[in-house]
Write a structure and sequence with these properties.
The chain is built from 12 helices and 14 strands. It is of the alpha/beta class. It folds into 2 domains: 136 residues, D-Maltodextrin-Binding Protein, domain 2, CATH 3.40.190; 108 residues, D-Maltodextrin-Binding Protein, domain 2, CATH 3.40.190. The strands form 4 sheets. It has a 5-stranded mixed sheet, sandwiched between helices. The chain starts with a helix and ends with a helix. It is a lipid-anchor. Keywords: Lipoprotein, Membrane, Palmitate, Signal, Transmembrane, Transmembrane helix. This is ABC transporter substrate-binding protein. One of its GO terms (cellular component) is membrane. InterPro entries: Lipoprotein_NlpA (IPR004872).
């Protein structure tokens, strides 16, 4: 009987040890991630951070709001932020060209927001008089995107350029109606609509939404979703050294969860989901 009790005791210890080891190996750890964003993207990620899906995936996300785009990328490169989610692929390319010693990488795609041309004076492109002033944002990526939009609208013609090439005012090849192109701070663009000296303003969608503008209803022209606008797809970004971080990559899957997309489509209908491999942007 004593021998049998000993055997049972040993078996019990073995079973408990096995359970402990199994539990330890399969215990779900919570990964803390500090994410930087701005504008309406901050609102989206604050919702995502509190979602059941984030908890299920073992992600504890702290969202920090920034007002300056350059500071967001700088903080990510310096490790003050783990990731950021606010910029287009074109903006990322520009940042990396200017900061070769602190490059960032895209972990995945999120959405595209068609940029629009707005006016309080005209409802049709053809009505904009010759010699009028058109305003676009003054940072390199937004300036390039704004000029490409004006070209797509048929208002100007640019020198030959690739999809991911940045262009500036010097790249205007033809301007038959002699439009004056004025650069302004992107955040002040909605206010420029009230300037009588400006006929129309190109406004990025985050800024437009914050000003209560709907790109599909209020703009007189907006970008079409096509191959030539893929550089404008927004991405989740991290420092180069973290490009293979499996926990950070989970943010991409989390963003595209059905329940998350349902919220985004209802709250921010102009954020059109883009669920593509990163190679889609580089090819």
């Amino acid at each position: 009987m004593k021998k049998k009790t000993t055997i049972i005791g040993i078996l019990a210890v073995i079973v408990l040890a096995a359970i402990f080891i199994f539990t330890s190996q399969h215990k779900k750890t919570t990964e803390k991630i500090v994410l930087g964003s701005q504008g309406t993207d901050t609102q989206v990620w604050e919702y995502i951070a509190k979602s059941k899906e984030a908890k299920k995936m073992g992600l504890k996300i702290t969202v920090k709001d920034f007002t300056d785009s350059a500071s967001l990328d700088r903080a990510t490169a310096e490790g003050k932020l783990d990731v950021n989610a606010f910029q287009s692929y074109a903006y990322l390319v520009t940042y990396n060209k200017q900061n070769k010693n602190s490059k960032l990488v895209a972990l995945g795609t999120t959405y595209i927001q068609p940029m629009g041309l707005y006016s309080k004076k005209y409802t049709k492109l053809k009505d904009i008089p010759s010699g009028s002033t058109l305003a676009i944002a003054n940072d390199a990526a937004a300036e390039s995107r704004g000029l490409k939009l004006l070209e797509s609208a048929g208002l100007i013609t640019l020198k030959k350029h690739g999809v991911n090439d940045l262009v500036n005012i010097k790249d205007i090849k033809s301007n038959p109606k002699n439009f004056k192109i004025k650069t302004v701070l992107s955040t002040s663009a909605p206010n420029i609509l009230n300037d009588n000296s400006v006929a129309a303003v190109v406004i990025d969608n985050n800024t437009a939404q914050e000003a209560g503008l709907n790109v599909f209803k209020d703009s007189i022209y907006h970008e079409k979703i096509e191959q030539n606008t893929k550089a404008n797809v927004n991405v989740i970004v991290t420092a180069k050294k973290n490009e293979n971080n499996s926990q950070y990559k989970k943010l991409v899957k989390l963003y595209h969860k059905k329940s998350i997309q349902k919220y985004i489509k209802k709250k921010f209908p102009a954020k059109v989901e883009v669920k593509k491999n990163i190679k889609y942007l580089t090819n």
